């Protein structure tokens, strides 16, 4: 039987639009309800969709350690862990369940997650030359799509692009638009130090908008330098600050104005952006550098969605009050130590009512990713 994500682009987009219900709920017709399905009604459980779940396929890691060696890349695997290094960042030892799909599925079942949107994480693919940049993106996308084909009810794909070159990015974008399982694009908060409103990315964003794909951002090569080198501050503070910087460039640089149909999703509950947007508004009223916009920066907050990896219910309450429940999506940051082992439980214990829980756990993500019902 043909899975919903393996059909042609035109049919997939049509079916996806038809499947978005008024309430934005993804109804469980894909598979028997898992522990993550919450009750909308006796016969219509809602699927939980984790949009912040990282995956490192072995094909990609071997490429980092082989062809990447010429650019400072390395990869080592031990009995129970693996590590890799690049000029843009190093990680490890990391648990093998980043690689092992069966272990991942077990974790998903134990945490109540029905569907993961697979994404690459740091150090992304922007640290080598143009040729390897494109090759790494292609290898990762193909490997993630293969996981979807093996488990079409449990995984979709947020494809990565070789952003060092616009032509390469668009070529890969055209290819992955028809790749089974691809439902969006994953991108760093900066591209090897270049901010996302840089003119060299304009053609890429224009084509992403035309294809109707959402863009999910993730911090990488974050700000702070040596001042954030201790106490893990490069992650604890660097990540949320870099997210705020990226979103501010998208707003103030006019990217959102030029691409009104382009949706961006911000990790870690939007980082520092929501709490500092009043300061951006104050700058908009007094500083000429910010006055490219017809509307104040805070009016753009609803152009983004925000994942739930906040580690704070009051922060989510603040987001709901300022951007609305329909802009929150479930995230786990699987399976980093700063993520959630129980992302569904975090929302179920948050005090939201049943409709709000259904929207955050799966309904909003289903709408953004155009998942079939």
Low-confidence spans: pLDDT under 50, at least 5 residues? Answer: 1-43
Beta-strand content: 15-25%
Q: Biggest β-sheet: count, sense, barrel? A: 8 strands, parallel
Fourth-tier CATH superfamily name: Metal-dependent hydrolases
The first-to-last residue Cα distance is 16 Å
Look at the structure and give the CATH class: Alpha Beta
Number of strands: 13
Number of domains: 1
Mean pLDDT: 89
CATH topology tier name: TIM Barrel
Radius of gyration: 19 Å
The percentage helix is 25-40%
CATH architecture classification name:
Alpha-Beta Barrel
Shape: globular
Order of SSEs, N→C? HEEEHEEEHEHEHEHEHHHEHEHEHH
Q: Indicate the structural class.
A: alpha/beta
- Spatial strand sequence of the major β-sheet: 3-7-8-9-10-11-12-13
Describe this structure in words.
By secondary structure, this protein is of the alpha/beta class. The chain has a single domain, classed as Metal-dependent hydrolases (TIM Barrel, Alpha-Beta Barrel). The chain has 13 helices and 13 strands. The protein has helices at residues 9-19, 58-65, 101-111, 130-150, 166-176, 202-211, 233-236, 238-252, 255-258, 273-286, 313-323, 343-348, 354-369, and strands at 38-39, 45-46, 49-54, 74-77, 81-86, 89-95, 115-119, 155-160, 182-188, 215-218, 264-266, 304-307, 328-329. Strands 3-7-8-9-10-11-12-13 form an eight-stranded parallel beta sheet. It has a three-stranded antiparallel beta sheet with strand order 4-5-6. Strands 1-2 form a two-stranded antiparallel ribbon. Helix 4 runs parallel beside helix 5 (166-176). It starts with 8 loop residues before the first helix and ends with a helix.
């Amino acid at each position: 039987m043909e899975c919903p994500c393996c059909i042609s682009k035109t049919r997939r987009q049509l079916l996806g639009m038809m499947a978005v219900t008024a309430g934005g709920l993804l109804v469980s017709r894909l598979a028997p309800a898992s522990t993550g399905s919450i009750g909308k009604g006796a016969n219509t459980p809602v699927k939980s969709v984790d949009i912040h779940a990282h995956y490192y396929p072995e094909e990609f890691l071997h490429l980092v350690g082989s062809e990447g060696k010429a650019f400072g890349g390395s990869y080592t695997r031990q009995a129970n862990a693996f590590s890799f290094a690049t000029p843009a960042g190093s990680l490890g030892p990391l648990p093998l369940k980043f690689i092992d799909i069966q272990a991942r599925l077990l974790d998903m079942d134990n945490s109540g997650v029905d569907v993961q949107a697979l994404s690459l994480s740091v150090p992304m693919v922007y640290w080598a030359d143009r040729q390897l940049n494109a090759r790494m993106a292609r290898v990762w996308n193909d490997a993630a799509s293969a996981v979807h084909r093996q488990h079409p009810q449990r995984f979709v794909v947020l494809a990565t692009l070789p952003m060092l070159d616009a032509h390469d990015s668009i070529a890969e974008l055209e290819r992955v638009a028809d790749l089974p399982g691809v439902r969006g694009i994953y991108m760093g908060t900066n591209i090897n130090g270049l901010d996302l409103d840089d003119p060299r990315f304009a053609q890429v964003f224009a084509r992403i908008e035309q294809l109707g794909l959402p863009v999910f951002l993730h911090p990488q090569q974050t700000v702070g330098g040596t001042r954030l080198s201790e106490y893990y501050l490069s992650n604890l503070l660097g990540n949320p600050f870099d997210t705020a910087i990226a979103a501010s460039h998208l707003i103030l640089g006019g990217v959102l104005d030029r691409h009104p149909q382009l949706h961006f999703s911000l990790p870690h509950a939007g980082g520092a952006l929501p709490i500092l947007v009043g300061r951006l508004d104050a700058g908009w009223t007094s500083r000429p550098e910010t006055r490219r916009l017809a509307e104040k920066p805070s009016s753009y907050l609803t152009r983004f969605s925000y994942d739930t990896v906040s580690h704070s219910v009051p922060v989510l309450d603040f987001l709901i009050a300022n951007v609305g429940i329909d802009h929150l999506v479930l995230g786990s940051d699987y399976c980093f130590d700063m993520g959630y082992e129980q992302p569904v439980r975090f929302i179920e214990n948050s005090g939201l009512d049943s409709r709000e829980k259904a929207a955050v756990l799966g309904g909003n993500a289903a709408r953004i990713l155009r998942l079939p019902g």
